[in-house]
């Protein structure tokens, strides 16, 4: 709570200096994850079906435009503190984590518990509430159909609908396909650190290329290219370069 308070106070008193707030909010989220890991070890376990896991991945993807909690938090903070808890035009690492990111925390907690097969009180009701809440975005889209760019919501809308279908109405064949996908993602986990350090440079590089952009089709192609490049680069880093560096360091340490 101290880290959160530091971030809020810094935002209110020194809104132009966002670095301290960004780090404080990030530390708060990290500590929340640490607390969750410590206090959920005694929870009973219930095996989650694979199609639900894949469905939750799609729901998570949709939250970029479908997180109603983000809208509620934004309206609440503006009512209380105006726009002083927002970073405004500040971009980059100084504003990497902002106060509105706490609107994702309920979903982070839920998804972590689901993916670790944890059971908890009111699990079904809490899950249903958090999964159905983003559907209110469709009401907003219908009411403002002529005043907003609907194309910005197409990808998130599809992700949300696919995710809900996978979670609640998936047949047995989808469960088998989902199991294969999860197994593949587990293998990709062996490249996780390489992906972590290389994905942002690739995203920045592709973002600077303005050619072939501006539509759902071009976004899909660029997204696929980003994933492919990131996986290929991570594979080279983890499976080719890292073993050679480890071997080199081991030989150097043996000489010493």
Low-confidence stretches: none
Tally of helical segments: 11
Kindly, what is the distance between the CA atoms of the first and last residues, rounded to a whole number of angstroms? 47 Å
Please compute the radius of gyration using only Cα atoms: 21 Å
The secondary structure category is mainly alpha
What's a quick, concise take on this entry?
The protein has a domain at 188-256. Helix content is 71%, strand content 0%.
Account of the 3D structure:
The structure is a single chain. This protein has 256 residues and is mainly α. The chain has a domain at 188-256. Helix content is 71%, strand content 0%. It is built from 11 helices and no strands. The protein has helices at residues 2-13, 19-39, 50-66, 68-81, 105-115, 123-132, 136-143, 154-168, 172-188, 192-207, 216-255. Helix 3 (50-66) runs antiparallel to helix 8 (154-168), helix 3 (50-66) crosses helix 9 (172-188) and helix 10 (192-207) crosses helix 11. It is globular, with a radius of gyration of 21 Å. The mean pLDDT is 85.
């Amino acid at each position: 709570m101290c880290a959160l308070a530091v971030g809020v106070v810094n935002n209110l008193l020194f809104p132009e200096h966002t670095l301290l707030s960004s780090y404080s909010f990030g530390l708060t989220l990290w500590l929340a994850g640490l607390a969750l890991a410590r206090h959920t070890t005694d929870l009973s376990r219930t095996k989650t079906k694979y199609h639900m896991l894949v469905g939750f991945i799609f729901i998570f993807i949709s939250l970029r435009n479908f997180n109603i909690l983000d809208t509620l938090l934004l309206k609440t903070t503006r009512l209380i503190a105006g726009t002083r808890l927002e970073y405004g035009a500040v971009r980059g690492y100084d504003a990497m984590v902002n106060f509105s990111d706490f609107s994702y925390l309920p979903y982070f907690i839920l998804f972590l518990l689901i993916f670790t097969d944890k059971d908890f009180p009111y699990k079904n009701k809490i899950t249903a509430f958090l999964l159905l809440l983003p559907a209110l975005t469709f009401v907003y889209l219908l009411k403002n159909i002529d005043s907003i760019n609907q194309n910005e919501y197409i990808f998130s809308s599809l992700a949300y609908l696919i995710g809900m279908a996978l979670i609640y109405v998936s047949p047995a064949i989808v469960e088998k396909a989902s199991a294969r996908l999860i197994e593949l993602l587990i293998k990709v986990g062996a490249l996780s650190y390489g992906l972590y350090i290389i994905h942002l440079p690739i995203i920045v590089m592709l973002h600077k290329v303005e050619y072939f952009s501006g539509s759902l089709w071009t976004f899909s192609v660029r997204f696929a290219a980003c994933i492919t490049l990131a996986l290929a680069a991570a594979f080279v880093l983890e499976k080719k370069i890292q073993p050679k560096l480890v071997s080199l360091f081991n030989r150097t340490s043996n000489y010493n």
